[in-house]
Amino acid sequence: MNSILIKPLVTEKSMNDVSKGKYSFVVAKDASKAHIKAAVKAQFNVTVVSVATSVQKGKTQRVGIRRTEVDKSTVKKATVQLKKGDKIGIFEPGGEEEEKKEKKEKKETKK
User: pLDDT tens track of the chain, all 111 residues?
Assistant: First the structure.
């Protein structure tokens, strides 16, 4: 499951969507929407409403003094819509610390 979500996608547009409950990730190229939904649910303990995916085709780029061509790889992006009220802490400033505190509190209340 962890190999499905590669990294969070942090751009200006994706950070504006956070207020709407939409979070963006770079995912494995062979991951289906069902796999992405299950991975987000398992890793962040949230309810996923919908998943939208897009594939950005790899291109060539000229770099260096000799202008050699370098290939950029193909990337698959997923935008996940969460249930109203659910949040993913890594997109919030200082959110990882808050998630750790919440998990500790839940463990203490269960005991």
Answer: 568 999 999 999 999 999 999 999 999 999 999 999 999 999 999 999 999 999 999 999 999 999 999 999 999 999 999 999 999 988 877 655 556 666 666 667 766
25 CB burial (10 A radius; 0-12, 13-18, 19+): buried
Q: Which residues contact 5 (CB under 8 A, 6 or more apart)?
A: 25, 27, 36, 39, 40, 43
Query: What does 67-102 look like in DSSP terms, one character per residue?
Result: TEEEEPPPEEEEEEEEPTT---GGGSTTHHHHHHHH
> Which residues are paired to 62 by β-bridges?
69
| Rounded Cα distance, 102 and 28, in Å | 29
CATH 3.30.70.330 fits 5-110, yes or no: yes
In the chain, domain spans:
5-110
pTM of the model: 0.77
